[in-house]
Amino acid sequence: MAKIAILERKCTGCGLCQSNCPFGAIDMKNGKPDLNAACKVCGICVKNCPEKAILKLETKVDSVDKSKWNDILVFAEVSGGRLHPVCLELIGKARELAKNVNYKVKAVLVGSGVSAFAEELRHYGVSEIAVYDDPALSYFRADAYASCVEDYIKYAHPSVVLVGATSLGRSLAPRLSTRFHTGLTADCTKLELRENTDLVQIRPAFGGNIMAQIITTNTRPQFATVRYKVMNPPMRQEEAAGNIVPRKIPKAVADCKSSCVSVQPIPPKQSISDAEILVVGGRGLQKESDLDMIKELAQLLGGDWATTRPLVEKGWSTNDRQIGLSGRTVRPRLIITCGVSGAIQFTACMNGSDHIVSINTDKDAPIFDVAHIAIVGDLYEIVPALIKQLKEAQA
Fold first, then answer.
1. Is 73 within 8 Å of 153 (Cβ atoms)?
2. Cβ neighbours of residue 272 closer than 8 Å, sequence gap 6 or more
3. What is the mean pLDDT of the chain?
4. What is the CA radius of gyration of the chain?
5. Residue among 201, 228, 188 at smallest CA distance from 83
6. What is the C-alpha to C-alpha distance for residues 374 and 380, in angstroms, rounded to an integer?
7. How large is the greatest C-alpha to C-alpha distance in the chain, in angstroms?
8. Which of 121, 156, 354, 373 is deepest in the core (most CB within 10 A)?
9. How far is CA 349 from CA 136, 162, 208, 226, in A?
10. Angle (nearest 5°) at CA 77 between 75 and 82
11. What is the C-alpha to C-alpha distance for residues 173 and 179, in angstroms, rounded to an integer?
12. How far apart are CA 107 and CA 92, in angstroms?
């Protein structure tokens, strides 16, 4: 762990540390800097102190024996009576990473009646599927599920554990990393595995202004959550392989004090993450009614429509229509962006699309860095022209 220390005997109270702190984590009290709870120990104040009165202290942690932690484990989530598609994407990425260090890919299933899904996983190149199947696990309880996965991790000692960044996964992963006193990186957009088995977990940081590379060097296992539609799922193999290993339910499941009082199903609704064609409106739209032409173009193409975060903040759209780190990740066959500048937090959640067409008046807009077809022009001229041509073609 690291922490910031201030040497008062050297501090002149110039206030540069306070003015340069991007998190507002430094208050000036009696002419001296005082750190508050917002401190992220980023070290910017250390670099900007002209008197060298601020230090970043590192506490060394005893390193684990990495040779005792091997293979990659994927938490295979079952949701709505089916395998969540994100678990297949994680298996595909795990297989790709495992080749570099000669690891095996394993999976763990938790729930009631999940044994049938273990057989399906055998067609995706998983060497072992651990199954915790019990009526006590018929509904998700974070502590009970965490106890099952913890039990298998202690048995198998995987070096890497991948969890889908779903509602369930976001509740499960932090509990697991805490139990093993190790790190967790959420919402990764890219993963790499070094020869020394350190997992490079890449995700946007500082509001999407940089792509951070995060590694867990001293502890194992290494936990990461990945969003749906970020990775590529593997091809299903005709021949089944891998072993299914039923596991005994840990005693901690019975000791879990939470219980289900009632269940209120939420009616399923269409998600932009599942759309094959998307038309996206961005900050370049001048008024809310201009979204009508975005919707019309999407309808004519047989697709769906979406927006960027600024339009959600204006109240023109809802969060379930937003593409970005605080919205949805998409991977359609075709995406057309209209008036979208292309901030990292947006492009990181759509740059895996098969065909990206972008319309923007700024020829230097960042969106053109990921676009396959860049159209420099006014969306108020181009979109109506596209709508007219599509209508004439359909007529």
1. yes
2. 278, 304, 306, 320, 321, 323, 328, 330
3. 94
4. 24
5. 228
6. 16
7. 81
8. 121
9. 36, 18, 11, 11
10. 145
11. 10
12. 12
Least confident of 47-61, 221-235, 376-390: 47-61
> Does 3 score more than 90 pLDDT?
no
| Chain segment 342-366, per-residue pLDDT in tens | 998 899 999 999 999 999 999 999 9
> What is the torsional sign of CA 86, 98, 73, 200?
negative
List, in order of start, the domains of the chain with CATH numbers.
2-58 (3.30.70.20), 66-255 (3.40.50.620), 272-394 (3.40.50.1220)
Contact in structure between 211 and 97 (CB atoms under 8 Å): no
